[in-house]
Specification:
- It is a single chain.
- The protein is built from 13 helices and no strands.
- By secondary structure, the chain is mostly helical.
- It is globular, with a radius of gyration of 21 Å.
- It starts with 22 loop residues before the first helix and ends with a helix.
Length: 284
């Protein structure tokens, strides 16, 4: 009997393993991923007057708000760093994670009309979101370095730079995969339990207050500190700030915990994502 599968370049099977990530397939569809990245970037600011400037305006407005409320009125410590640099560094890291999580958490619902009509690796959508957020992160990081240069040259800020800045790409990868894993996990669950989508926004905001975005971790002690460290973003933000400003801590043990949680999130997210993908058209 003739094997007809030899006549096809791509064969779509439904019996693949649940933990199948499909690296080779995603690489084959890399042009599509790039198109999704471009689509997300253009769509976000297509009908805005200021366009990509919002990448700078949004974190600056948040930084200004935090500086007034938490820095000036509440008088929270910033570990000796200028308030603007302290809050901006935390906001940049948190924004990249939170945007990646909230946007990927709607993958199935937002793209149901596409998923039901044409085949392509579904994971290319959340991956493209995480990549497109890198553009925003890069612009905000350059803004931070601009402010850092100003404080060094004009305000005579004593910059405590250190070698850990070379680990910034590693921290960025960790944030990206943590957001991706948590996002696709939530996205998969929301196909059946829509209530979760309403909790994501609130949960992300709540998580921010349980991370050292607003205050340095060393100002907290006891059980509350362990509670903050349970948030996998806490060690990452501390290390991120330590690499940029020299304040906070760069703790490999705490970062290892974040890495383990990230791996669990990604593996669990991919497994449930692949399982839901087979039947999501019946539930969405």
């Amino acid at each position: 009997m003739k094997d007809n599968t030899k006549d096809w370049d791509v064969i779509i099977k439904s019996d693949r393993k649940l933990w199948h990530f499909g690296f080779s397939e995603l690489w084959r569809y890399r042009d599509l991923v790039f198109l999704f990245v471009r689509r997300d970037f253009v769509a976000n600011y297509k009908q805005t007057v200021l366009g990509p400037l919002w990448h700078i305006i949004q974190p600056l407005l948040t930084t200004l708000t935090f500086t007034i409320i938490f820095g000036n009125i509440a008088g929270l410590s910033t570990d000796g760093s200028p308030k603007i640099l302290f809050y901006l560094s935390g906001i940049i890291a948190w924004s990249y994670f939170s945007l990646g999580l909230t946007k990927t958490s709607t993958t199935f619902i937002s793209n149901a009309h596409i998923f039901s009509k044409v085949y392509f690796p579904r994971l290319s959508v959340p991956i493209s979101i995480v990549i497109s957020n890198l553009i925003s992160f890069g612009i905000q990081l350059l803004t931070f370095f601009g402010f850092l240069l100003y404080f060094i040259l004009v305000e005579n800020y004593s910059f405590n730079g250190n070698i850990t800045i070379i680990f910034l790409p590693l921290l960025l990868i960790l944030m990206a995969f943590l957001a991706l894993g948590a996002g696709i996990l939530v996205s998969s669950l929301t196909t059946k339990y829509r209530d979760i989508s309403f909790l994501v926004g609130f949960g992300v905001q709540l998580m921010m207050y349980f991370s050292p975005v607003i205050f340095p971790l060393d100002t907290v002690e006891g059980k509350l500190k362990y509670l903050l460290l349970a948030n996998p973003m806490t060690p990452i933000i501390e290390a991120f700030r330590y690499s940029l400003l020299g304040t906070g801590e760069f703790n490999w043990l705490h970062l290892s915990y974040s890495l383990v949680i990230t791996l669990i999130m990604v593996l669990g997210g991919v497994i449930i994502f692949n399982k839901v993908e087979r039947s999501f058209n019946d539930t969405v």
